[in-house]
Amino acid sequence: MNMLQEVNITSKTILLIDDEMNVREIVKFCLQDLAGWNVLTADSPLEGLQSAVRNSPDAIVLDISIRDLASFEFMNKLRNHPETQAIPIVLLSAKARWLDSEILRQYQVAGVIPKPFNPVTLPAEVAKLLGWDFTSLMD
Q1: pTM for the complete prediction?
Q2: Residue 50 covered by a domain
Q3: pLDDT tens across 28-84, in order?
């Protein structure tokens, strides 16, 4: 087995769902370049659900806001779909304080990363919430 195959075996795939292009680009860059993960992106919950069913990512990073009911509908559909119900979700939120433990339990959320986040530590935070071993490619 050559080195390239070994890297591909251990690589994680993250589905990133965020409607803000600039945030998507920053988060994608951090997760790809600092952690070496494959990152799929979607700019809406509907596109994200289709991508989750099609690609079976290892985890989903979802931007959520208090006014965005589509994110909660997305999480309901995700949890009710046999092919996606077990995919862990990490939320990015500027309103992290309103996400109480009952909401997190109801939607089986692995954890919340408050915005603004530190781009350099973002992959380590995601890995910690998901229980993944993490070594930065920058180390």
Answers
A1: 0.87
A2: yes
A3: 999 999 999 999 999 988 899 999 999 999 999 999 865 567 788 899 999 999 999
Q: How many domains does the chain have?
A: 1
Closest CA to 32 of 15, 54, 55: 15
> Contact, 44 vs 20, CB < 8 A?
no
- What does the block give as tokens for 51? 């991508």
Residue 69 maps to a domain: yes
Asked if 16 and 29 count as a contact pair (C-beta separation under 8 A), the reply is no
Structure tokens at 126: 């995601």
Cα–Cα distance, 112 to 64 (Å, whole number)? 10
123: preceding bond cis by omega (within 30 degrees): no
How far is residue 113's CA from residue 127's CA, in Å, rounded to a whole number?
11
Is residue 40 a part of any domain in this protein? Answer: yes
In the DSSP assignment, the letter for residue 43 is S
